[in-house]
Please model this.
Amino acid sequence: MSDKPWGGRFKESTSLAVEAYTESISFDSALYAQDIAGSKAHARMLGRQGVISAEEADRLIEGLDQVKREIEEGSFPWKQELEDVHMNIETRLTQIVGEVGKKLHTGRSRNDQVCLDFRLFVSDQLREWIRLTRDLVRMFMRRAEENRAVLLPGCTHMQPAQPVSLAQHLLAYAWMLKRDAERMADCERRVRVSPLGAAALAGTTYALNPAMVAEELGMYGTFDNSMDAVADRDFALEALFCGSVCMGHLSRFCEEIIWWANPLFGYITLSDKHSTGSSIMPQKKNPDVAEIMRGKTGRAYGNLVNLMTIMKGIPLTYNRDLQEDKIPFIDTDKTVRHSLSLMADMLEGITFHPERMRKALAAGFLNATELADYLVTKGLPFREAHHVSGRAVAMAEDKGVGLEDLTLEELRSLSTLIDEDVYTALDYDTAVARRNVPGGTGPESVARQLEKMRRWLEEDGK
Model:
C-alpha cells in the first residue's frame, strides 16, 4: 500500500526512479512563504465559515508559523519522496499539530493551491522587478543630469548621423525602462488574482469564501471559472514576456557600453569592479559584465519560449506538465533582478569622456542635415537642399576636412544662397540647441523630459 498522502487507491509504492523524475521540491521549495501564507488564509477562512472550528483554525495557523520558522532557520526536513512544497509542509504540520493538520486541505486541491502559490510568487517578484527598474531609471536620470552639455554622435545603421546630447541618449533608455515598469505593473494586476476555491477543476461543495482569502492575501480578486483557474498560466507567460523585454533593453545598452569602452571609441571607461582582464594580454580591460548580461538575455528569451511550448498542447484542465512552469520563471526572475541591480551599479561607475565624443562629431559630417535645413530657411526646396548638402559632403571628404572647415567661397560654389551665417548653423552645439521640439535633443526638451520622468516617479511611488 502506498504511503503517499494521496495513496489510498494504490497497492504499491512509487518507484524511486519515478520519485526522482517527478519531484518538484528541488525548485518549488522557493515558494514556501507563499504556500504558508495561502494556507494560513485558507485555515482562517475555514474557521470563519464554520467548516472547521475556530480553535482548529488557530492551531493550524500556529503550526504553520512554526513550519515557516523551521524553514527559515534551516532545520526543516525537506523530503523528496513527499514530491513538492505543499506535501512537505502539510506533512510536517500534521506532525506538529496532530490529526487536525489533515483538515487543512479541506475544500482545496493541490491544483488550486499551487496556482495560488505561484501567482503570489510571480506577483511578489514582479513588485521587486518594478522597484529595481525604477531605481535604474533614477540612475539613468542622474547620469543624464550630469551630462546635459556633453555631445556625441547619434547613429543610425551604426553610422554617425546627427549630434545629440549624451543626456538625450541616456534618457532614451530611461523611457524604455519606464515602459518596462508600467508593463510589469499592468501584468501584476492580472497575476495577483486568487484561484483558491476552484479545487481540482470543478469548484467545491464546501461553504468557502474565496474573496475572504483573496482579501487577506492582498489580491485584486478571485477566479471566474474554476477550470480556467487551475489550467491558466497566462500570468507566468506575461511575466516572462515582461522580463524578456526588459532584458532586451538592458542588452541594447550593454552593446553600446561594449562599443564605447573600446579604446577605438574611448567614450567611456568602466570601473575596475565591473571589468576583468586577460590571462595572456596584460593591457586588456574587458567589459565582461555587459557581455554576460547580453548573453543572459537569450536565456530569458528561451525561458519564455520554454513555457509557451509547454502550454501549447495542454488540454483542460490541470496536467502534470504544468509542474515545469516554475523553473523558467525562477531562472528569469534571478536573471532580471541581478541584471537590473548590476546595471545600476555599473552605470554609476562609468566615467564618460566628453572630449572623445566631441572629437568623434567631426568624423562623420554630422552637421550635413544642418546645412540642408539652413538652405531650406533661405528658400530652397528640401530635396534640392539635400542634394547641395550631399555635394558639400563629397567636397569636404575629398579635401579631408569637415563641412565647417570649407571656405565660404567653396560653399558658395555649390549654392549662392549660402552666406557667413552658415557657420553658425554648422556649429554642433547650435545644432543640438535648436532641437527643442517635444522629445528632441535640445536642452529645453531634455529638461522637460527629466521633469516629466521625475513627476512619474513621484506620482507612481516612492
Remarks:
- The chain is about 60% helix and 5% strand.
